[in-house]
């Protein structure tokens, strides 16, 4: 509760508790008012009066607060009105300035026609409208032509609808006819395929007979080596040459590349007609390049380049021995902790019906290095693959697994980098049977074989089947399974796979044809390149190792002749002053003793100087006329020999001197002196 000032009714005096207020009713208090600052008695009669005084004080205070707020509002009004008036004046001034800065547009009035001209224009337009809308006007003619064209269009649409209905009615018959034609086409292809196989079998038998006759007559006449044998031997020699001297030849080869376990080795075996390579379950088997020379022969055999043993590929025991030998050779190439090697294993496979070519099977490209491999295995495989593919005349046989997603392929990116135009690449899609069993999208397979899915180009695209999951199947059984698959496959029946793109037999023929075309186009060029390389290497050898070179008789003669002529040229470059000095010194050494002993001393016996001079003159003249010329020639010739020998000895001290010709030069000089004769 509050006590109130009697003068100003202010309640801001002192706060007392309710108990004090009730217990001190009617008591006069001497307290100071905080509003009027006066000491006046505060009268509080009772509880009701105190409450009324309190309400009155609050009402009075609210009134004063409202008055103060009203006064403040009135001040704000004046400020707003003043600002509005000032802003208006300023805006009016800016408007006048902007108006004066605008350009004059009175010239528009001269261009805009007046009311009379506008009326004339409107009259002309109305007249033109009447002419166009008349019965024989332009609009009538246009409407008539448009109606005629619309009628023709409607008639054409009706005819098209009728034709479409007829086609829809006959579509069922058309599909049946197409299916029937496809079945007939497949039947004809199978018929001709069987006929071709029969003829090929007969041809192989005939060739076998001819080759056997040739071998029987081998004792009578020597049979020349075949072209593929000679070509393979050249590649073997160059392979050793490359491994020793870090060079690379550009002779054609068929390079078989692909991701690991993509079926590239199986493709090579199908072409070779025998399972000649070791096999593993998911592990790397090809650890070094294997060069396989394929040629035709009466018997199906194989042998290594550095071995005389022939393996009979028609016997399973011989095949097992061959695979074991290949595995042993591969392991011997990857010693010292390596996983792959660049050393080449060369072998020859011959048999009836085999296409002649040279193939190189490379290690499969991997994406992850396991703990059982060397750390650089992935990079080493890519380096070997790129080295072989960098040969501009190498045919790249790119193998892609058809049973896995195309996005997992690694080899296609490498092939597209090495052969971006696809001028020497043949693409092979393997495991097509598994792709069909896995219900792979047929349109995706078609894109692959049309060259529209992978970022690479190729000369041709083929689809093959290289097995049916049994590692003990023979090549003949796999070929029969392949032929049966493609004859019954939906991919062939629906036209996704073309007959010429299927089977390893078609692939083998295409690769062989491409290989020999490349050989024919590049062998002469490569021969010239090898000749130039040989000449450059021989020149470099001669310049780098002058003391270790070997020359034939003609080369020795020409070299010695050149060096002797060089010495003669150097001899001719000596100055006349030098010759005069040397010959005079040598001549005086030869005749000085004779002049003193035979001319001056006998003349000195006389006591008369005149007699001495006369005798000396007479003796010198006789000696000069009779003996001195011959002595001078002998001394000159001897000086020439000494100077020539001096130049030869001087050249021996040079670093580039080769003493192989020293004795030859001395012999030539002695023989020349012996044979020399003066003209009379």
From TrEMBL:
Record's catalysed reaction(s): GTP + H2O = GDP + phosphate + H(+)
Membrane topology listed for this record: Single-pass membrane protein
Coiled coil: 139-209
EC number of this enzyme: 3.6.5.5
Taxonomy, superkingdom: Eukaryota
GO biological process: apoptotic process; endocytosis; intracellular distribution of mitochondria; mitochondrial fission; mitochondrial fusion; peroxisome fission
Key word Signal present: no
GO cellular component, one term: microtubule
PANTHER family for the chain: DYNAMIN (PTHR11566), DYNAMIN-LIKE 120 KDA PROTEIN, MITOCHONDRIAL (PTHR11566:SF67)
Designated name of the protein: Dynamin-like GTPase OPA1, mitochondrial
């Amino acid at each position: 509760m509050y006590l109130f000032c009697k003068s100003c009714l202010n309640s801001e005096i002192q706060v007392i508790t309710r108990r004090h207020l009730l217990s001190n009713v009617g008591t006069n208090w001497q307290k100071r008012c905080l509003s009027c600052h006066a000491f006046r008695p505060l009268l509080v009669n009772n509880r009701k009066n105190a409450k009324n005084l309190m309400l009155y004080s609050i009402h009075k205070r609210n009134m004063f607060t409202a008055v103060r707020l009203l006064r403040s509002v009135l001040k704000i009004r004046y400020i707003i009105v003043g600002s509005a008036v000032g802003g208006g004046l300023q805006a009016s001034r800016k408007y006048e300035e902007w108006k004066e800065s605008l350009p004059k547009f009175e010239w528009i009035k001269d261009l805009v026609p007046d009311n009379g001209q506008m009326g004339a224009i409107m009259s002309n337009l109305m007249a033109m409208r009447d002419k166009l809308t008349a019965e024989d006007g332009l609009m009538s003619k246009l409407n008539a032509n448009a109606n005629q064209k619309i009628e023709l269009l409607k008639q054409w649409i009706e005819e098209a609808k009728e034709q479409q209905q007829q086609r829809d009615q006959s579509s069922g018959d058309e599909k049946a006819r197409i299916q029937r034609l496809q079945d007939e086409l497949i039947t004809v292809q199978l018929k001709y395929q069987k006929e071709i196989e029969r003829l090929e079998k007969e041809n192989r038998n005939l060739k076998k007979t001819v080759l056997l006759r040739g071998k029987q007559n081998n004792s009578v006449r020597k049979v020349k080596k075949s072209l593929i044998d000679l070509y393979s031997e050249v590649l073997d020699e160059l392979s050793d040459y490359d491994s020793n001297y870090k060079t690379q030849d550009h002779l054609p080869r068929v390079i078989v590349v692909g991701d690991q376990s993509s079926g590239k080795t199986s493709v090579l075996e199908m072409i070779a007609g025998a399972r000649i390579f070791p096999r593993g379950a998911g592990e790397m088997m090809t650890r070094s390049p294997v060069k396989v020379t394929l040629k035709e022969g009466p018997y199906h055999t194989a042998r290594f380049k550095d071995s005389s043993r022939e393996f009979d590929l028609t016997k399973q025991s011989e095949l097992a021995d061959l695979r074991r030998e290949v595995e042993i050779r591969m392991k011997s190439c990857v010693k010292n902790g390596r996983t792959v090697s660049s050393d080449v294993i060369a072998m020859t496979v011959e048999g009836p019906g085999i296409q002649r070519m040279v193939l190189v099977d490379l290690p499969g490209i991997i994406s992850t290095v396991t703990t059982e491999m060397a750390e650089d295995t992935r990079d080493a495989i890519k380096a070997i693959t790129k080295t072989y593919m960098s040969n501009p005349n190498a045919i790249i046989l790119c193998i892609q697994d058809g049973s896995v997603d195309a996005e997992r392929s690694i080899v296609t990116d490498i092939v597209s980098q090495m052969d971006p135009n696809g001028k020497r690449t043949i693409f092979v899609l393997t495991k097509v049977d598994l792709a069909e069993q896995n219900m792979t999208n047929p349109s995706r397979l078609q894109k692959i074989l049309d060259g529209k899915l992978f970022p690479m180009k190729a000369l041709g695209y083929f689809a093959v089947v290289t097995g049916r999951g049994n590692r003990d199947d023979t090549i003949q059984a796999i070929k029969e399974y392949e032929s049966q698959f493609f004859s019954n496959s939906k991919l062939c029946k629906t036209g996704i796979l073309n007959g010429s793109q299927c089977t390893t037999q078609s692939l083998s023929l295409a690769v062989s044809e491409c290989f020999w075309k490349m050989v024919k186009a590049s062998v002469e060029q490569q021969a010239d390149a090898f000749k130039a390389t040989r000449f450059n290497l021989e020149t470099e050898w001669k310049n780098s190792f002058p003391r270790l070179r070997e020359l034939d008789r003609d080369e020795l003669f020409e070299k010695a002749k050149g060096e002797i002529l060089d010495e003669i040229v150097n001899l001719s470059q000596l100055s006349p002053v030098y010759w005069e000095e040397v010959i005079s010194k040598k001549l005086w050494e030869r005749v000085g003793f004779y002049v003193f002993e035979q001319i001056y001393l006998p003349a000195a016996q006389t006591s008369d100087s005149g007699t001495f001079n006369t005798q000396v003159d007479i003796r010198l003249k006789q000696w000069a006329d009779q003996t001195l010329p011959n002595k001078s020639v002998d001394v000159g010739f001897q000086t020439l020999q000494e100077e020539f020998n001096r130049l030869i000895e001087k050249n021996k001290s040079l670093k580039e001197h080769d003493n192989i010709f020293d004795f030859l030069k001395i012999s030539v000089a002695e023989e020349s002196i012996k044979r020399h004769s003066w003209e009379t």
